[in-house]
Write a structure and sequence with these properties.
5-stranded antiparallel sheet; 18 strands; 4 domains; OB fold (Dihydrolipoamide Acetyltransferase, E2P); mainly beta; about 290 residues; about 10% helix
């Protein structure tokens, strides 16, 4: 696609070409395409030639239009959207625009219902030239050529549960899994987190965790424990002999990560470990 082509479903930085009664006409200098920015989105002050960031899509009359409002989802991305209306041919989703985003029935994993929330992918339908949504999100992911490796930090979107844990979308490109024994908090579909690639399995399958690995895990978990200690008046009823479920309930981390973290804090004389729990050492005690 030419760099000076107006891109539907994306944010475009366009120049103001001229002003007319319905609004401002925008485009690229020397380009052949232009798009209307209606008066309701017109800036208070401007000059011909000024550049303005706009989102471009088709309005209710199938005309190309530019707006300064930004949607909840753009072309080529995933988001959790609310269904406002369900019809025999498809569903209409609230994505923050005047015209709602259409999800055809054939692009629904199961029938969408009004009021429900659904994780969807937004793409440009080549036949109609319109932006549409699909809840069949995994068909837009590919692990053939990975762009991530073991220990890489990644952006994670919670997709849907499985028998083994929770399926996730990794960096908006790949499929991944967080296994049940690595889930220490309630995860909801559409939630976004920072994660780490724990392992790359045969077939480029990605194991993801929501906390750092090994020595990388010590410092952030130690800081987390300190935060909880300070909020708990300097005491937590946990020790290296505590039940893993108690550790999970208090700190949302594994017993192994907890033991490493308090070991570091103890060596640094930040905490004291006694039979009934861990105590924050104040400056006066050092």
């Amino acid at each position: 696609m030419n760099e000076n082509t107006i891109k539907i479903g994306e944010v475009n930085l366009l120049g103001i070409l001229r002003e007319r009664q319905p609004g401002l006409f925008l485009g690229y200098p020397g380009g052949v395409e232009e798009v209307l920015l209606p008066n309701r989105y017109k800036p208070e002050s401007f000059e011909i030639g000024d550049e303005i960031e706009v989102f471009v899509y088709k309005d209710n009359e199938e005309r190309l239009v530019a707006v300064t409002d930004m949607p909840h989802i753009k072309k080529g991305t995933f988001a959790l959207l609310r269904c406002s209306e369900s019809t025999p041919i498809g569903a209409f989703l609230d994505w923050g625009m005047v015209k709602e985003l259409f999800c055809p029935f054939k692009e629904q994993v199961f029938k969408m219902n009004a009021g429900g929330w659904y994780l969807v992918y937004c793409f440009l339908d080549e036949k109609s030239g319109r932006l549409v949504a699909s809840s069949k999100t995994f068909k837009f992911l590919d692990n053939t050529n990975l762009t991530v490796a073991k220990f890489d930090k990644v952006e994670v979107i919670i997709s849907h549960p499985s028998d083994f844990g929770m399926n996730v979308i990794v960096n908006g490109k790949h499929k991944g899994v967080i296994y049940n024994d690595q889930i220490f908090k309630t995860l909801h579909i559409g939630d976004k987190y920072e994660g780490v690639v724990a392992k790359v399995r045969e077939g480029n399958k990605l194991d993801i965790i929501l906390q750092e690995i090994g020595y990388r895990n010590i410092e952030p978990n130690a800081e987390h424990i300190l935060t909880i200690l300070k909020a708990s008046k300097g005491f937590l009823p946990l020790t290296d002999k505590s039940d893993p479920q108690d550790v999970k309930d208090w700190l949302e981390m594994s017993k192994k990560s907890f033991k490493k973290a308090i070991g570091t804090l103890y060596k640094q004389r930040v905490i004291d470990i006694k039979e009934d729990g861990i105590y924050l050492i104040t400056e006066n005690e050092n």
